[in-house]
Amino acid sequence: MTEELSLWSLIVGATIPVQLVMLILLAASVVSWIMIVQRGLYIRQTRTDLRKFENTFWSGVDLNELFRHGNNRLNKDNTIDGVESLFRAGFREFNRLSQSGSADPDAVIEGVERAMRVALNREEEKLNTNLPFLASVASVSPYIGLFGTVWGIMHSFRGLANVQQATLATVAPGISEALIATAMGLFAAIPAVLAFNRYSAHADVLYNAYETFADEFSSILHRRVHSQ
Questions:
Q1: Which of 29, 67, 90, 221 has the most CB atoms lying inside 10 A of its own CB?
Q2: Is residue 120 part of a domain?
Q3: Which residue, among 107, 80, 118, 121, has the nearest Cα to 221 in the 3D structure?
Q4: Mean pLDDT highest for which of 98-102, 140-144, 222-226?
Q5: How far is it, in rounded angstroms, from Cα 13 to Cα 7?
């Protein structure tokens, strides 16, 4: 009895539809865990970069020097993400319009704000990468597991038609394999929903920080262009 109801024997002995459900849930769980780890590392690095750049920016460093430092990093094949990409987009547009000589100060600021808004949209996409997939796994996995459970129980009850006396030993394997599908659905869904909620909150916080920086940087450039 113990051998018959072992986890592996129940999975191997399950019907093809239930095995397919288990395979789908296993794949969804593996992929979601990979994305959870990747998102966690990205969010942590992004928060570190945000603090580091804001400390440098508000320390009174020359903006041209800060921009050149970013160019040097790009020349070394390093990517620039996060709040620094907003700074570079805005300052690049500011220098381009200011050096034209004929641009109106208000037009310069409008161009800067447009450039930073485009960069902000790109950063928002990066912050939300893979979150829709985690949300889908969190919402759909329990229902996929439930489908496997219903199918397994139906198969178990159909098997009772061929026996004269129904006992626990007769129905236990079929019900057990059905419940495994439910357990796998929850195993895939619970980490996904926790990660989605956590990373969505972090993404909102970072996005608000980017927006605040863009507004503050726009004000700095506004004062600078009107003082020239």
A1: 90
A2: yes
A3: 107
A4: 140-144
A5: 10
